[in-house]
Design a protein that fits this description.
Elements (H helix, E strand, L loop, with lengths): L6 E4 L19 E2 L5 E2 L5 E2 L5 H10 L3 E6 L4 H11 L5 E6 L4 H12 L6 E4 L9
Parallel strand pairs: 1-5, 1-7, 5-6
Antiparallel strand pairs: 2-3, 3-4
Length: 130
């Protein structure tokens, strides 16, 4: 029997955007009239340009998407996801310090999706092996 992948989870820092939210940028963030997103110092923030299309395609293909991140600045991460316009793609947002195994346990409990039906993308290789 073949198992179909149901849920795809992503880390945030250096996976969906090219910086560390806890150390490289300063919240709060704002979207300017020209569409640029800046932090409180006026530094322009960019995401990896492929990410919006990938998220849209996965969403349209029926995958459940999740965020799994150990970012300490939880409120800032959620604000940035909303300003960028990605918030609606993610059914689960486990954003807080701690072991990612706990993040995934909560997603598993809430979604009723088994681990073998999940895929995880993270820039830290050791964290992708749970």
């Amino acid at each position: 029997m073949e198992t179909r992948l149901k849920l795809i989870a992503f880390d945030l820092d250096y996976t969906l955007w090219p910086f560390r939210l806890d150390t490289d940028v300063v919240a709060p963030f704002q979207k300017r009239s020209n569409g640029n997103i800046v932090d409180s110092k006026g530094t322009k923030l960019n995401c990896y340009h492929e990410v919006p299309g990938i998220l849209k395609s996965l969403d349209e293909d029926g995958f459940i998407l999740a965020i799994v991140s150990r970012i300490a600045k939880t409120k800032a991460a959620r604000q940035l996801l909303e300003i960028i316009g990605w918030d609606s793609f993610f059914s689960f947002k486990e954003i807080y310090p701690g072991h990612k195994s706990l993040h995934f346990q909560r997603i598993k409990d809430q979604s009723k999706i088994d681990y073998h039906e999940m895929l995880f993308f993270d820039d830290e290789h050791l964290l992708t092996i749970l």
